Amino acid sequence: MAIQAGRIRVLKDVEPRGDGRYVLYLLQQANRAHENPALELAIEEANRLGLPVLACFGLLDGKNGFPEANARHYAFLLQGLADAASGLKARGIGFCLRKASPARIAIDLAEDAALLVLDRGYLAIQKRWYAEIVEAVDARIVQVEGDVVVPVEVTSGKHEYAARTLRPKLHKHLDDYVAPLTARKVKHAAGRGLPKSEVDIADTAAVLAGMSLDRIVGPVRRFTGGETEARRRLKAYLEGPFANYGSDRNRPEAGAASHMSPYLHFGQISPVEIVRAVRAAKAGGREDKASYVEEVVIRRELAMNHVHYTEGYDDYARAVPEWARKVLAEHADDPRPKTYTETELAEGRTHDVYWNAAQAEMRETGYMHNHLRMYWGKKILEWSPSPEEGFARTLRLNNRYFLDGRDANSFTNVAWVYGLHDRPWARRKIFGTVRYQSENSLRKFDAKAYLKTVEALCRAEAENEA
């Protein structure tokens, strides 16, 4: 099956080098050895040129580490890279990992490459890497989208107002972009002469121990990284809890969530693969499948649209729509029923036991159900001294503790709390006409059962640390 033309962008249109030793693939966003269109294109080009494929990864460390990433995030990343390295080796593809920026390793290794293939991400830091690479590399550079179902620009050429404006545009292309991706056979396996990794990724614990990073927020037991684990989880989910997704998806205690978000964030599973699997699932009816596709495609790609077309998506003044900032400013001096410091919020020391439980789940296990994430964020706005400080606190806590923090969804969901992709509602204190969420929303599920679930999860994490 051909890779859709809409996924492919030529960033430097020159002929491949005749003296190149390999086709280089910067495996940075799509951290997987299968269902990866950028990798498959690299294999196609290598087969055509009679060369092996070398995949590389730049591991940011120390002062140059990925912004806000800590031991929790890196443990999951390294587990995924070890799995990807194993999968690449089985396919006859070389792998080189170095402690360097993604741009630096790509620029260095491209000196001996016939051409360079990039995958794609939409965050500002990723765009800076690509720009640096294009500026410094003289070889042919091709970028292939594998992080969303439909490439952002194919769906829309502008910032979309809401899901309702994006949905019809995306559905117009959806079927064309969920076609199966055939694994190409590698004709020229990687040999001993290719550059080797400076780090033995097989021992992820040792690699993590040797890194200079924030260890206060540690690895979690609840999730193990890697495409193998992602597929195992997806298969088990579709054979079990998915049957009630449509009715139970907004009930945190019901176990109807797939927990695919960390794996999507780190590129350890393709969203296209997930959509195909959901569509083919024997369990679940039409409503269940439509609801799931809405989340993994429409909502997720609305977030990609937001960060791609918004310069300063992590800044309150630029990420939050003008109408919302105006009305929140009008109510900035309204008395708060409660106010808490950021430390009190992080430690879950508020008067709201259910909010505290949601915070504990996030802090200890790296995950929080989407229904509670909305309530969690709205309460931080309500309990903060100003909307600007509330926005900053929410983003810092989100990015620090969630495994899928620092993601397009993270930046978009936090801005949604403050009015992004929403409309004005009835006016009230503190929020003005920005949507409010009260404790009454907790009545939609068994909140006491959720408390017990969180207690068990946190106990399991504590036993793991012991």
From TrEMBL:
- Keywords of this entry: Lyase
| Protein name per its UniProtKB record | Deoxyribodipyrimidine photo-lyase
Tell me which SUPFAM superfamilies the record gives. Answer: Cryptochrome/photolyase FAD-binding domain, Cryptochrome/photolyase, N-terminal domain
Q: Extract one GO molecular function annotation from the record.
A: deoxyribodipyrimidine photo-lyase activity
Q: Enumerate the spans annotated as Photolyase/cryptochrome alpha/beta domain.
A: 21-152
**Which Pfam families does the protein's record reference?**
DNA_photolyase (PF00875)
Cofactor(s) needed for function:
(6R)-5,10-methylene-5,6,7,8-tetrahydrofolate
Q: Which organism is it from?
A: Methylobacterium goesingense
EC number(s) recorded for this UniProt protein: 4.1.99.3
UniProt KW Lyase keyword: yes
Q: Which domain of life is it from?
A: Bacteria
